[in-house]
Batch of 3 targets.
Target 1
Amino acid sequence: MASFYVNENFPLPVVKYLRTLGHDVLTSLEAGNASQRIPDEEVLAFSIAQNRILLTLNRRDFIKLHKDNPVHAGIIICTENPNFESLASSIHQEIIAKRGLLENQLIRVYRSL
């Protein structure tokens, strides 16, 4: 499955669900990058260095970063969804639909209505 790096604002329950689906998920806390006010550019640089898909709720800033730096392992931006299992499932389905071809891609995952 996919290898992700999630920034601080991403819900931990979604991380847990993604792990049960077989994904390798590294959180900013686990990486030693939590509570440091690391700029978004450095968050993306870290995910690139780790060859991990960046997973975030910070849509506006990472859309701009993707335009400025389109070479990365992939960026998945999500809308907030209080149904954590549903959000994890939607992310998982995007990974399957893209057949793992996420490099340099910006993927949008929207909350199901």
Target 2
Amino acid sequence: MKTININKVRQDFLNLTAKVNDRQLIYLDNAATTLKPKCVVDRVAHYYLYENANIHRGVHSLSEQGTIAYENTRETIRSFIKAKHSHEVIFTKGTTDSINLVASSLGRQILKAGDEILLSTMEHHSNIVPWQIIAGQTGAKIVEVPINDAGEICMDTYQSLLGPKTKIVSIVHISNTLGTINPIKEMIQKAHEHGALFHVDAAQSVAHMPVDVQELDCDFLSFSGHKILGPTGTGILYGKEDLLNSMPPYQGGGDMIDVVTLKQTTYNSLPHKFEAGTPNIAGFIALKDAIDYIIELGFESISNQEHELLEYATAKLGSIEGLTIIGNAANKSSVISFVMDGVHPHDIGTLLDKMGIAVRTGHHCTQPLMEHFKITGTVRASFSFYNTKEEIDELTNAINKVKEFI
């Protein structure tokens, strides 16, 4: 079984040497954003110190070098998600930006009054609000796909909701709050049987498991660079070539133009049609280093490490009296959300911070999910491959101290 040299890997993440409230930092908020390896930070700094130039527009050496490095990232991501063409990879600001692009551009093209958009109860707000906006503009209707008390999508109900009015289905691959891994391939197949298009919110999945867009046969897929060791302000939208070609631009200006006159503008070809304005050049150049880092470690070793952490943490936290884990799907990623009897999640998070432990508290941008479980929020501990069982022991001890204190 392939394993990670945890001591060597942790040396790449200098944040892990930080002190918080005079305690050694224990970072368990990876679902919000991952830490960045030194190679990624160094690449951003190197660009600004030695290579700074705008891309796609200049004939001088720095501009041409930057363009090559920037487009190399696109090819790396194409290979990483197994897309057929590099021009099917659109650079955005993040998952939220990607979903807004699809909802606006595709939605205003294909939706009309009475059409239906299927979303699940566990969706992140970023995969709800853009669809609500376009539904309001077109007269389409949002249809909720329910979940069970384990935090799993009710597949029988999902299939029954699909029909001739279903035009778009947009479902999260892995829940940021529950860690549930949805049967996304099966869901895509069922949607296609009814002629619906399928968008995958892969913000939480690409850092934990291999994603093959051709095998999934998804129509669109979105994720963020900052959740996969990369810089903030970087995101990816994958779309099938024919669909992207048929969609109108989302924003105007910059690289998305072909010819501009005051009377009429023609648009650039893919992928540039959807990439208006000067992008986060340094961020996307460094995103390649983040993806390369993941590839070098390998998903087998990442999965093994994170699965061990999940099982260990589930057992340790589950043994604490008065603590209830929210979300117990049979197929789950390395996220544990929990509540404690008589203690508000924010109070737990604040006290854990005093002990140097970073967790997330609140509704995690999944308020419909909180409503389903009849709670206002949870404490969420989310693990990455650079976390250790010793850190989980510290978390367990700290929670017991919180209980004693309160």
Target 3
Amino acid sequence: MRISRRTALATGVSAALTGCSRQGYDAIVVGAGAFGAWTAEHLRRRSKSVLLVDQMGPANARASSGGESRMTRSAYGRDAIYTQMALASLREWKRLSERSALPLFHQCGVLFFFEQMVDYARDSFAVHQELDLPLQQLDNAQLKSRFPQINFDDVEFGLFEPDFGALMARRAVEELVARFAANGGEYILARAEPSAQPHEVLLDGRPERADAIIYACGPWLPKVFPEILGERIFVTRQEVAFIAPPDGDDNFSPGRLPGWADFNGGDLYYGFPNLEGRGFKIARDAHGGHFDPDTGDRRMSEEDASLLRAFAERRFPALAGRPFTEFRVCQYENSSNGDFLIDRHPTLANVFLLGGGSGHGFKHGPEVGRLMAELVLAGRAPDPRFSLATKTTAQAREVL
């Protein structure tokens, strides 16, 4: 079968769409976000024939991997598995960034701050010591001296990770897919649906065959497999805003302000410095209401805009009265407890399920892709916490 159309990525690199042989592909990956694209890349590196498919394009505006920036950090409380995954993934992101015309990683550091000592901070520090990773503990006076643009009056201490920072999300995924295609992988723009036939997926209604089919559909996973995941992946509305920093003031530039997360007062707020002139980014890490990635209204609500405004002006006094420059509504696809889903389909032998990014997954894309590739090629299952069996119908996130 021959695929006649060719798809050009936003980076200007065209995917080589020569179609497949009668035997089909070694693997078809559905979904060109961070999880799917890295899975396709790891399979390609193992000399497998791989077709990567997306219905709207890599890291598109409706995808969970879309948008400007994502935090990469290694502080995960007692969850050392995510600390190790973040570190391994960062090496891959940095290599990709070094080959990109524009930076994909900004090493601005990440600062978490707390009003008192809590288990999350204590456990993060212990894990970093055990793994011999740098994690600086700063008291209130040190915080005020190093980051004067932040109001630390109710903060006891902070944890600073100098080696981490911000990933340019959309650009990074587009670069990854472009390089995947340039190095022998195949990418097409098409709508994929499961087929009733084994080893088959329908692409725009046409059957395509593969030894393995990996569905990495982000917020669409519950729609693709409603019987299995409809009540186990929770898609929620998440709102982000950008604020113009004061004119002529470099205190909000990446060299002066790190990525940050505020663990005070019950709600978790986080954000980034003024990356590449886009503005100061702020978001509230509370799960919003149920959201449909196809039909959901992506306009910021007045209520949430007011919450973000009030927090920004309290914690970053120089932003008082500064205008919002942009709003974005995306979505999380949460598992019941925040752990990823990396597993086989329970009844379809050649089908694999990949998702449950749960708001913290982007940074782990390289390692998640490697783990899925190991499962597909060697039958090597990842840690049991990533199994379908651990995903329940009660949403209670434990991973932060």
